[in-house]
Protein 1
Amino acid sequence: MIIEEEISNFIMVWSVAITLFCYSYIIGKFIPKGILRFMAIFPSILILLLLPLRLTTVYLIGPSSLLLSWLSTFKLLLFAFSSKGPLSSNPPLSFPHFLLIASFPIKFQDKVESNHNQIKVTSLNWSNKLLVIFILCSFFIHLYDDDKKQNFHPIILMTLYTLQMYTGLEIFLASITVIIGKLFKVELEQPFNKPHLSTSVQDFWGRRWNIMVTRILHPTVYKPMVKACSHVVGRKWAPLPAVIVTFAVSALMHELIFYYLKHEKGAWEGWEPCWDSMCFFLIHGVCLALQIAHKKVFEPKHELLPRVMSCILTMTFVVSTGICLFVPALVRSSVFVKARTESTAFVHFVKNVYVQHTCPLST
């Protein structure tokens, strides 16, 4: 009954969200962009921030909070003030496309390159490899109970958690892209661009990792901060504080997701900020700002290190800081323990439903 109630809540949450997107689409038809449109859409943004509190399971809270409370709210903010956001276009988006883009981390691809099919096949092959790794990690995750996880070295344990988190996120976003692309016969940009081949922190965050989040943070936080800081430090150096502020906003949004994952209905007690997670994003923001400053000062014509060495150093930095600072915040939120418990409960739920429908007399 608990799972049935959670499924009912999930349907309710997304029904309300779709209703809010419909309302925002209608508002966009009658109110021009600016403060009046923002005031009309603000209740929708507030409700989207509160909707994940209706859910209790990790597998539903995580995706819903990422899609609705972060990406959708930022998209609506751009829709309220800017004519260049994902929900704004000339000519205006059709109603179905508006709902799709407001709901999911997708972007319609304007031009299909001649080698797109090869890229697509490679991406699908890589997704298959990730799926195998994810299944293996799901097997190992059952060993992470209080008794058996003592057999793992803490670094190995955190590495497995990191692999589980990364593959789960990549498969989730890639699945959305593939399913929507097939259902609506449209070409969509891939959510990841081989992050393991990143040659720098700037390359990792700007062009390869979770591209849709980057596309949202750039116009909503980075560009306004560059404009504001230009009056203080000049246009040349304005990107440096803008980058750090952008990563700080990303840290706050992750903190909000951590709260959703950890909270219990009606309870604010026991919640503490994940300072190590915030440090993770601030460290990466400072490193990215230093890299930009280095390029502005020295204007190097060639890369300092060979590409292979740059990839190794970049991924070592990203993975090590993730294991030391980001993943522990998920562990404290009991994400992996809850995921293991929920997986077991869901299997029993499906099994019971199957038995009830195939052998009604036995119940």
Protein 2
Amino acid sequence: MIPGAHMHQDSSKPFKDPHAYRRLIGRLIYLTNTRPYITFSVNQLAQFMAFPTNLHYTAAMKVLRCFKGSPALGLFFPTNSIVQLKAYSDNNWASCPDTRRSVSGYCIYLEDSLITWKSKKQRIVSRSSCEAEYRALALTTCEIT
């Protein structure tokens, strides 16, 4: 997907086979286990499984095309890594155009190996970017604990 693009429910033509769209998104969700770089895009597309449009299906096909250009990309877990935990968190304040809620995300590494990650829309609307950052850090801290 285009960086900075956010999907939303619009008035474009509904996709003719919603069941096929749901199957495709389900398979993409499974692929996020070893290819975390598609997690945000798949998360955006999964929000419209009830009423997908042609625009959503086109975006899902673009995600599939990225696999064709990068078949060797994925997670690698070496056996000789040192036990050191590193965590990164970030958020995108009021990024959802429909609800104005922030999207928080984190990734946690055990040395150089990614062991967990998450991107999730916050439950409430944050009043400031500072409040949204605090919520993202709290979410990351809970996961580490």
Protein 3
Amino acid sequence: MTFDFDKHINYFLSNLRMLPSAYTETETNRMTLAFFCLAGLELLGATDKVISDQNKHDWIDWIYAQQILPTKDNENELNKTHCGFRGSSWSGRSFQPHASHCEYQPYDSAHIANTYTALMNLLILGDDLSRVNRKAVLTTIRNLQQADGSISPTDGSLERDVRFIYCASAISYMLNDWSAIDVESTIEYIKRLQSYEYAIGQSPGEESHGGSTFCGVGALTLMNHQQDGLLNKEKLIKWCVSRQSSGFEGRPNKKADTCYCFWIGATLKVIFL
């Protein structure tokens, strides 16, 4: 079967411009869906060929309009755990891509995964991140990190898993500022995620999984602590290679799935950097 570049490019473009009806229920995560499309176009070498300068300008403004900023009268308090980027304009805030502050709304919060994909989207579109309130983003991450080294995706969330450690690490790497993360406790937490197979689960004591293994290895690599963070690299490599059948599976005795060609393949790639 021949890979149809044009069909893939047109699919990504159509999803950027309007979500298909089957995806509209995920509107609150539109930022992340946009990242999948933009990253796909970038991997195909098509970004500058098929996206006009006007579209880039408009989409960059849309991304900045989703930025949750400090409040004007109490910059360091009301929004200190809410800043970053939301997934879409679902909350009904006015479109203000050049704002420097915003009003506090308790249920309108940034999400660490959408902050990660927003920064990625901006960089793919050629933005210089000059409108990102770096201090506010980093203050929020600092407040989302827990005493055990894990990181929550939003203020008050009970989720604590390695996906959000990866997002926080990627944000810190892109902003070139690691002051928001307690790196030592984060490394110790990732060590606790490594099972008897030496791959990585989402939370301590959980089964190793292809997606969480990539997130853990990716975070350690971004922190430049892969060597001291991985308990047994050779056995981890063996676990990854053992996931291959017709494609790659995410866990032992599961069916192969195309997404794990990325998660497992990227893990192996990062390990051998």
Protein 4
Amino acid sequence: MMLIFGLMLLLLLQTAACLEFNCRFNQSDPCYAALGHKLNLKMVDASIYHLKIQKRINNNPDDPVCRVKNDKIKECDLFNNRAEVTVINGTLIINRVIRADSGNYTLKLDGSNGTVTSTDLQVNVEAPIGSVEVSISCSSNGMKSVSCSSDGDQLIYSWTLNGESMMDGNTTIELNEETDGNIICSVKNHVSHGQKNIRVKHCPVIQMSLIALGCVSLILILLFITACHFYKRKQLQSTPAPAGDTELVYAQISHDKHKKSEKNKSESLPTADVEYAAVRPQTKRKEKKEEEVQYGEVTFTPNRSNALQESKEECVYSQVQRR
């Protein structure tokens, strides 16, 4: 495996524009190509041999074939007339690799003397690595969880803390509370690699706990105040408003006649008796504080001394004002 990676690094020419890979049909190791990037497949001198490149799908003569003669592509159904595929100086060049380019290929050489030789090559296409992202989360017990992620195919992860290697192959690692320093997540596959450096600090366990406790306490206090408010409001709404009070009002009423008759009778009649009668006023609401004028019907029974002079009951309406 280390030999493969070493060969891949030697063959990889990375520029600002694209990734470029060089492989040979007679190599024993698989050929890796980056999706969307350039692949050069070295064949032989196409001016000497008639070449036939066949992609083995079902291992039969009907598999796609591309014939090359005099350094030019002839009768090619392998690459479906793709303009980005050319042959230059005996090298098959694919300027923009697609996933369909993965597979097993056989190169057959037809010599001028009638000899036929063949060689095989395995081509693997992988998506290169995108940007590497690292995140840190703290748990309630002070432990730290560090996660790493990236785009691409066949990703391999590795970690280093303050320059020392840690476990490989995991996208997430757990660190204890005392861990501090620089941590690096490295991501690679057969066609690219990337890494991200991040600073690891202590998790503020006590501070986080106090903040959480304070928030919970505040919420409980607000809930209690709200519950008390609604309880009192419900009590007030459920208590029926008292009916209007009935009061007994005593009125001092004098038997007043017309002024003329009063003078005539003043000599013969005793002083008008003061009588008290119970008057039931109209019901009033508590909210009204203003004095109300009540009218009540009062029936007087004359004294025996006046029975001869006044034979009929008199109904006197008086304006009664509550005290």
